[in-house]
Amino acid sequence: PEIATALRTTGFDSCSTASNHTLDDGAEGVRRTLDALDEAGVRHAGSARTAAEAARPTILPAGPGKGAAKVAHLAYTYGTNDIPLPAGRPWTVNVTDERKIVEEARAARRAGADVVVLSAHWGTEWQDEPDVQQLELAERLTASTDQGRPDIDLIIGTHAHVPQAYEKVNGT
User: What does each of the 172 residues of the chain score in pLDDT, given as a tens digit?
Assistant: First the structure.
């Protein structure tokens, strides 16, 4: 709980909770983490306590006032360190599934998001260049459009433990 409060105090509005460590303490650990974030006022994306929560897009205002852009935050991880998803709870953590990511991005747009940001927990640890899987998935996700508009506006990668290059892919 102290970390969640510190995140809020330092200005974090939202965070990704999808990583290869999300299930380290099981579904109960996910619940405790999300409860602490909620209590601290930090929004989150990438894991959920219920199917209904998993189905709700995380959308935040980009600033104060009615005219602020609405930013959707999606979060997915490449895996869970071989820890199985809890039985009957496939929504506990978002494991990378290209089709599901695109569906969630489109649902966020329908819910009013002006911008869609994907936090992707991916890549190879200690490698300072994106790997082939990252590049190929980024290419496909940023090429995905609906009514001429990109489904994903920005992908922010995590997991490598070192900085990796950034680049524009498909104009986004």
Answer: 789 999 999 999 999 999 999 999 999 999 999 999 999 999 999 999 999 999 999 999 999 888 999 999 999 999 999 999 999 999 999 999 999 999 999 999 999 999 999 999 999 999 999 999 999 999 999 999 999 999 999 999 999 999 988 888 888 7
pTM value > 0.70: yes
Classify 17 in phi/psi space as left (phi over 0), alpha (psi -120 to 50) or beta. Answer: alpha
What domains appear along the chain, each with residue ranges and CATH number? Answer: 2-158 (3.60.21.10)
> How many C-beta atoms surround the C-beta of residue 30 within 10 A?
22
